[in-house]
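Trying the structure run again after the queue cleared.
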Amino acid sequence: MFPDVEIPVVSVVTKFPGSSPETVEKEVSKRIEEAVNPISGVKHVLSTSRESVSTVVILFHLEVRVNDAAQEVRPR
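Done. Tokens:
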């Protein structure tokens, strides 16, 4: 009854020890967002910057295979 659907989402978690949330946003989160946004198939990019940690979540269109998406994100 339930279709086998794989939601293509890739999360990038980066540690930047000792840095403020503002610094993490400017130096890490924004740079990752700018690097992954041009990737084909990206639907939306969300990020959270906390003290010493950046989390960027990249949502892809459903037709994108998650393994392909991860391979595109990794080198960026």
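DSSP finds two helices and three strands in the chain. Worth checking whether this holds up in the mutant runs.
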